[in-house]
Amino acid sequence: MKRILMLFIAGSLAFGCKSAKETNATVSTNEKTIEKKLQQNWVLENLNGKVVTDKDFSSLPKIVMNPATFSGSTGCNAIKGNLLSKGEGQIQFLNLTSETKKCDAKKEAEFLQLLRTNSGYSIKENKLFLSNQFGLTMSFKKG
To answer: Engineering a disulfide at 137: which of 59, 75, 89, 114 sits with its beta carbon 3.0 to 4.6 angstroms away?
Structure first.
């Protein structure tokens, strides 16, 4: 009886490990497809439904996306972190860090907060649109 139980447990573990490996391989393939679309330099155009101007930022915020990381600027401070894609139209900016230079960028905190809460994206006509649970938050043009 103990041998049968041991064989059953060993078989379950082996089957479970194989399924997990197959699932991870599928996710990685999907992530590469999504990431390729995003691997661009993006310049902020619109923040919370309003066109950004020189009055809002010292210079326009930029994001450079790579397969698993991003870097850029808030218009004053450098930013960087990790990207996580969970499928078509879904992306998160994780471990976001920023320099802490004093700036005259009135919308910098809002920009950073929206990046941290971002969960979705779409790309149309060479523009990147980011969104969170409440809807569209930012748009970028290729830069």
So the answer is: 114
